[in-house]
């Protein structure tokens, strides 16, 4: 599945506000149900790689994957945000005993948040970075496509160790 350009988005203040509102809504539902006061989690976009999001129980923080958010903002906010909030609600209500995707988490997802309790998400993962091998007098170096482009356009790169010029060998 490739991403649909029409649904692409960046983290605008409006998107941040939508995420914040979704979190607040989920927390409110949980507070009403469990009849306790919950601490609203914070969020950032530090998540990388194949994971859509991670909930950090001790710091009450959620890390979201910007690459996946950009593919489909609506879907991400509808599915990934409640998924991670549910982990933090489980922790605040039950402590660290329940399994990550156990019955407590599933019940919160399906009965409170009304979201299908899938353990994972079907977002595309970032394609592996293309790398280019360069050589000096002492070792090989790996260049990103960006750096390789600059080298091709004439930027001279020197090895920090031997001070020799780096010459292109091959694409990795
Ligand atoms: Zn999870
Ligand atoms: Zn060198």
UniProtKB/TrEMBL annotation:
A GO term, aspect molecular function: metallopeptidase activity
Keyword flag Hydrolase: yes
Keywords of the record: Hydrolase, Metalloprotease, Protease
Keyword Hydrolase: yes
InterPro entries according to UniProt: SprT-like_domain
Domain SprT-like stretches: 21-169
Domain of life (superkingdom): Bacteria
The protein's name: SprT family zinc-dependent metalloprotease
